[in-house]
Specification:
The structure holds 2 protein chains of 2 kinds. In chain A, the strands form 3 sheets. A 6-stranded mixed β-sheet of chain A has the order 6-7-8-3-9-10, sandwiched between helices. A 4-stranded antiparallel β-sheet of chain A has the order 2-1-4-5, with helices on one face. Chain A is elongated and about 75 Å long. Chain A has helices spanning 49-56, 98-108, 113-127, 142-153, 172-189, 200-206, 244-253, 271-283, 298-310; strands at 6-17, 21-33, 38-43, 64-69, 72-73, 83-86, 160-164, 192-196, 209-214, 217-223, 234-240, 256-260, 263-268, 287-294. By secondary structure, chain A is of the alpha/beta class. By secondary structure, chain B is an all-alpha fold. In chain B, helix 2 runs antiparallel to helix 3 (42-66), helix 3 (42-66) runs parallel beside helix 7 and helix 3 (42-66) packs antiparallel against helix 8 (157-171). Chain B has 12 helices and no strands. The longest helix of chain B is centred in the middle third of the chain and has 33 residues, at 89-121. Chain B has one domain (2-247). Classes of the chains: A alpha/beta, B mainly alpha. Chains A and B meet through helix 2 of A and helix 1 and helix 5 of B.
């Protein structure tokens, strides 16, 4: 059983701002991210994701509680030897080239020239940086900077990667590259990846577990299947050729109904109800276009939980 | 060492440095013009002017680069990836300082060598007094740079540069702060200025320029004392800079 990569206990950060009083950015956060796991950290802008990540990286001091990386306090520089960090907007010295940048960070970690050269070869291959190895970073696009940022995060071969919005601002190809890289690093190199994202589809696709942060509080942490309400599977059927009266009649029997150009879509609470609806639609001369089991998406769950928290509704 | 080396490289690749060096070279060469209007004093004027140029242009590098040294890293967010490495914050601060001091040392050495060569061409030679003056100028710049680095951790570059510039100017005339006319006795202003006298480093301790211009060496004991004074002040300022930076949220 691998050691937990990240643990936080009662982690809190309060900023005191002139005119605004105390702003609770992160409140009493208890989080566990296991080894060799891909963990998605979700929340709206200002929810406290970046502040949490900065506390994990030793850039911001907690007001209360503590964060540990592989059991060591995150404030301890030795703990950060196990950490590779990619900020939301990675900034590097503009007068350096990607190769020089990787060398600089390698030397900060005490690596010798041979190890740095091997690291560069690997990073250049993994991130397709070979063509720009000796061009100064000044003038690089967001996507290219992100690649350099990934290369820097991999310096020292840390077992934990903390990535702040690694897909933001990237084009679809760039996002795909990041997604594949995350999965590959976990699978082939056994790394733990903790990342925040707004792109819920990507999170849903690659994460083992997710945490949802609302106004600085963690309202959920667990596997995708453990998301509240996610087990509420339903069946949808799309039917064409029904008269308006027949469609209204069937809608009264269904759990949900939506009319569109491509026909009427009915939602049934379970399979039996869906079968009965389909039989009735066919009997009334309708044509069955689609019949599928549907599951609530992460976006649906996230939106619902966010709404419940901010309106003071029932918590899951 | 790595942070220091990188700071030096950054400054070398920064065009501002070349502009400053060009101005320094122009003013050293231009000093001959002042010599022409000072009959029989031209060598003395040139020596004086060369040493003054080293002091002023060294201070400009110290103030303009030093006052933004840490602020720029915070503002441009390059610190995020650096301080998330297994590196202690004070190592970073001291590394940045060492890099800037290496730059100032190289610049000062270049100006001293070119001034010496120029003096040789004019029929004079740089002597011990000249070297003493260069050494103490370096110590003065070490102190001023430490103050600039401290302020760059706490305030904006413009405000920091203004404060360091004021400290540089007042530091050369701290005696004025204490020797006020008698009618100031017992006033708040007197207390305030006297407090400033003890806080602001006395930079005139490092000024042996007029002696060097006349080719008169000062006692090495004095040089040693001035170096110790500068080193202690510099160490104290750097310690405060490290403390200020230690728990700063980025």
């Amino acid at each position: 059983m691998p050691m937990d990569a990240v643990t936080t206990a009662g982690l809190s950060k309060t900023y005191h701002q002139l005119g605004r009083g105390a702003v609770h950015s992160v409140r009493d956060l208890d989080l566990v991210v296991g080894g060799n796991e891909i963990y998605g950290f979700l929340g709206r802008n200002g929810a406290g994701k970046t502040t949490t990540i900065k506390m994990l990286c030793g850039l911001v001091q907690p007001t209360a509680g503590e964060a540990r990386l592989f059991g060591k306090p995150a404030r301890d520089p030795a703990a950060r030897a196990a950490l590779g960090y990619l900020p939301e907007q990675p900034y590097f010295y503009e007068y350096l080239t990607p190769r020089e940048t990787v060398r600089f960070y390698g030397r900060l970690r005490g690596m010798d020239d041979g190890a740095i050269a091997a690291l560069w070869d690997r990073a250049a291959d993994l991130l397709d940086l070979g063509g720009v190895a000796d061009r100064r970073i000044r003038g690089f696009s967001k996507g290219m900077r992100q690649r350099v940022g990934f290369a820097v995060a991999l310096v020292g071969d840390p077992p934990l990667l903390v990535l702040d919005e690694p897909m933001s601002g990237l084009d679809p190809l760039g996002r795909r590259m990041v997604r594949e890289l995350i999965v590959r690093l976990r699978k082939e190199e056994g790394k733990t990846i903790f990342f925040s994202s707004h792109v819920l589809g990507d999170v849903e696709e690659i994460c083992d577990r997710v945490g949802i942060l609302v106004d600085g509080r963690l309202v959920f942490s667990g596997g995708m299947d453990d998301l509240p309400g996610r087990d509420m599977k339903r069946t949808e059927l799309r039917v064409a050729g029904l008269s308006r009266a027949d469609a209204a009649d069937l809608a009264a029997r269904a759990a949900g109904h939506a009319a569109g150009d491509g026909g009427d879509t009915f939602t049934a609470a379970d399979g039996d109800a869906a079968n009965a609806l389909a039989a009735e639609a066919l009997r009334r001369g309708g044509r069955l276009l689609e019949f599928r089991r549907a599951q609530e998406s992460l976006e649906d769950v996230f939106t619902r939980m966010q709404h419940a928290e901010t309106t003071g509704g029932a918590r899951p | 060492m790595i942070v220091a080396g990188n700071t030096l490289r950054e400054s070398v690749r920064d065009k501002v440095l070349y502009v400053l060096l060009l101005f320094a070279a122009t003013s050293i060469l231009g000093s001959k013009a002042l010599g022409w209007i000072s009959v029989g004093q031209d060598i003395k004027i040139v020596r004086d002017f060369c040493l003054a140029s080293m002091s002023v242009f060294g201070a400009l590098i110290s103030i303009f680069i030093g006052a933004s040294l840490l602020y720029k890293e915070m503002d441009k967010k390059t610190l995020y990836t650096i301080l998330s490495q297994p590196l202690r914050r004070h190592e970073f601060v001291l590394g940045k300082y060492a890099g800037l001091m290496a730059l100032i040392a190289v610049t000062l050495a270049a100006m001293a060598v070119s001034s010496g060569a120029y003096l040789l061409v004019l029929g004079s030679a740089p002597d011990v007094s000249f070297l003493q003056a260069v050494l103490l100028t370096f110590m003065k710049l070490a102190l001023v740079t430490a103050l600039a680095v401290l302020l760059s951790a706490a305030t904006s570059p413009i405000l920091g540069a203004l404060i360091v510039f004021s400290a540089y100017v007042f530091g050369h005339a701290t005696g004025v702060l204490r020797d006020l006319p008698p009618h100031f006795d017992g006033t708040f202003a007197k207390g305030l200025l006297e407090a400033a006298y003890y806080v602001i480093p006395n930079l005139s301790n490092f000024s042996i320029q007029s002696e060097a211009a006349n080719g008169v060496a000062v006692a090495w004991a004095y040089v040693g004392w001035a170096v110790l004074y500068g080193a202690l002040y510099t160490a104290a300022l750097l310690a405060v800079a490290c403390l200020a930076f230690e728990r700063k949220d980025l």
